[in-house]
Specification:
CATH architecture: 3-Layer(aba) Sandwich
Number of domains: 1
Structural class: alpha/beta
Order of helices and strands: HEHEHEH
Oligomer: single chain
Family: Belongs to the isochorismatase family.
CATH topology: Rossmann fold
Protein name: Isochorismatase-like domain-containing protein
Radius of gyration: 13 Å
Distance between the termini: 26 Å
Number of helices: 4
Number of strands: 3
Helix content: 40-55%
Organism: Vagococcus bubulae
Largest sheet: 3 strands, parallel
CATH class: Alpha Beta
InterPro entries: Isochorismatase-like_dom, Isochorismatase-like_hydrls, Isochorismatase-like_sf
Strand content: 5-15%
CATH superfamily: Isochorismatase-like
GO molecular function: hydrolase activity
Shape: globular
Length: 90
């Protein structure tokens, strides 16, 4: 799958894979808190997916951005969980 824009949902192939799997929830991790993480998480929430954001599983060049976007996405409905908590739940 190729992604050329911040939101993974900009890829038709990504959306088709989710539909084929019957996905209703997703766990989000990645690199840029203020770009791909924000865009993909917001798109997922808007489309009705349950989103679990690994709160220490993304970052930004500007370090405070991770905390800022954790708060923003949590207010929009994302569940926040640490990587340690996520792994221990499995």
């Amino acid at each position: 799958m190729t992604k050329n824009k911040p939101s993974s949902f900009s890829s038709d192939e990504f959306c088709q894979i989710l539909d084929k799997l019957g996905a209703t929830e997703m766990v989000v991790t990645g690199l840029m808190s203020n770009a791909c993480i924000q865009a993909t998480s917001k798109s997922a929430l808007e489309k009705g997916y349950k989103v679990t954001l690994i709160e220490d599983g993304h970052d930004s060049i500007i370090k405070p951005m991770r905390g800022v976007f954790n708060k923003i996405l949590h207010k929009k409905g994302a569940n926040l969980i640490s990587c340690t908590e996520f792994v221990s739940d499995k």
